[in-house]
Amino acid sequence: MGKISLRQVTKTFGDVEVIPALDLDIEDGEFVVFVGPSGCGKSTLLRLIAGLEDVTGGHIEIDGRPATDVPPAKRGLAMVFQSYALYPHMSVRKNISFPLKMAKMDPAEQERRVNAAARTLNLTDYLDRRPGQLSGGQRQRVAIGRAIVREPSAFLFDEPLSNLDAALRVNMRLEISELHQSLKTTMIYVTHDQVEAMTMADKIVVLRAGRIEQVGSPLELYRAPRNLFVAGFIGSPKMNVISGEKAAEHGAHTIGIRPEHLLLAQDGAWSGRVGVAEHLGSDTFLHVHVEGLDPLTVRVQGEAGVSHGDAVRLSPMPEHLHRFDENGLAVR
Amino acid sequence: MLSPAVLLLLGWMIVPLSMTIYFSFLSYNLLMPGMEQFVGFANYEFFLTDPAFFEALANTLLLVGGVLVITIVGGTALALLLDQPMWGQGIVRILVIAPFFVMPTVSALVWKNMFMNPVNGLFAHLAKGVGLEPFDFLSHAPLFSIILIVAWQWLPFATLILLTALQSLDQEQLEASEMDGAKFGSRFVHIVLPHMSRAITVVILIQTIFLLSVFAEILVTTNGGPGYASTNITYLVYAQSLLQFDVGGGSAGGIVAVILANIVAIFLMRMIGKNLEA
Fold it and tell me: Which pLDDT value is given to residue B68?
């Protein structure tokens, strides 16, 4: 069980409205990612759900029961913090069993659950170490272990991977996805990294200034962004945004075209000059300067046979062209 | 290699220490100048077999222990209170450390004459106000009174150190423990207190060093009396050398005090020193 509903939830700090009235439904077993730029209120939203912050207005329901005034410990949620928030003076075993000890669980059952969690997370050899003797990835797993043993109705992750190096981040991303597949528990995950959002989520919630810009599956957001903000935020490299004359030709105030949907073609509509070319091996990102436009990014599969200064012609794939009106909303 | 700073410090310490050791083997009385002569360990024997020595030793330990208990418990409580957000936080914090700036003699005199005096003192007024007999603190509970005075002076120090320790506690740890279902009491015992243990160790070590040599408070309030009821080792050394003019005996007492202080320090390091390791 892990169905969470927010109804007209608002949050203000003093005079500052961080979250204007907001509705959101999270289904049981879903992996939901809150994504948005720094300061968009995604962490605050997570803390409201956790109960670490009090809502200013509105209601929160967990499994159909009102949870707005329920203290954090009683909500049946477990949270993994950005700094891991491990207890430095306790061994890994004690860290993981702390919530069980607080719940006054039978010691034999505590032992059983800690060992099960340690096996799941490959921590069995480290149970008697202190957090200070562990690497970043291991600490991360201890923090997850402390959440798992409680068998919560939902997990809350607050930017859990931001303190890890890039290679480890990819690993932990897979491990968390794997964990979700095996536990089938609701997970809410906050990140500012759209790659994490795209790769892990069942459902992405894009936030800006406390407002929900769009909710949908990763591919829905990729294929049909509702506005320019979502279009620019989802997808890497960023979507090229063009306004003015060239957009008017396509009957829109602004058009957007993703780098992978721009083709190098002899008879392309737009002509330009190649600037920097970034070679990744599998792909090449070309920065093409077209007269009267910001530089466009073009993604070419494999190695492109062009170099700095070459003249090229570009042709956008018409079926992948996104049209936006003057308010930045998508035109369908 | 000995740097100039080490040499200077060494000289600073070695000269008075070796002079004290030298005097402690002499029969050296201020009333008989020019009659100094070597007497071996006679001064030590005299000092260590003096019944006053054992009373002073017990008083010293009680004084140190009592003040430590009051300042650590009170300091932790005050630090917890001061850590709460409140109006006028800055001013309140300055007021809290104010007692530390008052000279020991002055604060002891204030306590003696304005609080504990059985005729004019505030406590006597309060007692009379509720119809009780005023209590003469300094003659009926001299050691306890001195413990109170010294604890009052050291409470701000403990509070300040413990407050900074409290403020360095990671808030996410507290939130994590809150989500883990820990109530205020268990959060304090399992998260806050272990975090503060290092700061508490520092407070105990530093205060012990200073509290072993409390002197001014005793001199201006009870003069070590009645009898030897509030005499500690430091005061006994003073009484020996400057009230009885026996510099040799006083020096022997001083050396004994140094050795005792080292024994206390070794015990302390054994017991709580491991807290200082990372």
Answer: 95
Q: Give me the helix-helix angle, B142-167 and B193-211, nearest 10°.
A: 140
Closest-approach residue (CA) in chain A for B172: A85
A4-231 CATH choice from 3.30.365.10, 3.90.1150.10, 1.10.10.60, 3.40.50.300: 3.40.50.300
- With CB atoms and an 8 Å threshold, state whether B179 touches A82: no
Per residue in B3-14, pLDDT tens?
888 888 888 888
**pLDDT tens digits for A248-286?**
888 888 889 999 998 888 888 888 888 888 888 888 898
- Tokens in use for A29? 């077993």
- What are the domain boundaries of chain A? 4-231, 240-331
Find the residue in B nearest to A49 (Cα).
B179
CA-CA distances (angstroms) from residue B89 to A254, B81, B84, B85?
Answer: 54, 11, 9, 7
Q: Which two tokens stand for residue A237?
A: 């490299």
CB–CB of A143/A134 below 8 Å? no
Structure token digits, residue B117:
């005096």
Half-sphere exposure of B150 (CA within 13 A, CB side): 30
What residues in A contact B195, CB-CB < 8 Å?
88-89
CATH 2.30.130.10 fits B63-246, yes or no: no
Residues of A in contact with B197 (CB under 8 A): 89
Q: Does B190 touch chain A (CB under 8 A)?
A: yes
pTM above 0.80, yes or no: no
Q: Does A83 touch chain B (CB under 8 A)?
A: yes
Dist. CA B112–CA B124, nearest whole Å: 12
Give kind and range of the element (H or E) at residue B267: helix B247-272
For residue B278, pLDDT over 60 is answered with: no
- Domain A240-331: assigned CATH number: 2.40.50.140
The reply to whether residue A87 touches residue B177, judged by beta carbons under 8 angstroms, is: yes
The predicted pLDDT at position A32 comes to: 93
Across the interface, whether the CB atoms of B179 and A132 are under 8 A apart is answered no
Chain B residues 152-171 within an 8 A CB cutoff of chain A: 170
Of A95, A50, A106, nearest to B178 by C-alpha is A50
What Cα–Cα distance (Å) separates residue A158 from each residue in A35, A74, A192? 11, 19, 10
Residues of B in contact with A85 (CB under 8 A): 170, 172-173, 175-176
Name the closest residue on chain B to residue A149, using Cα atoms.
B180
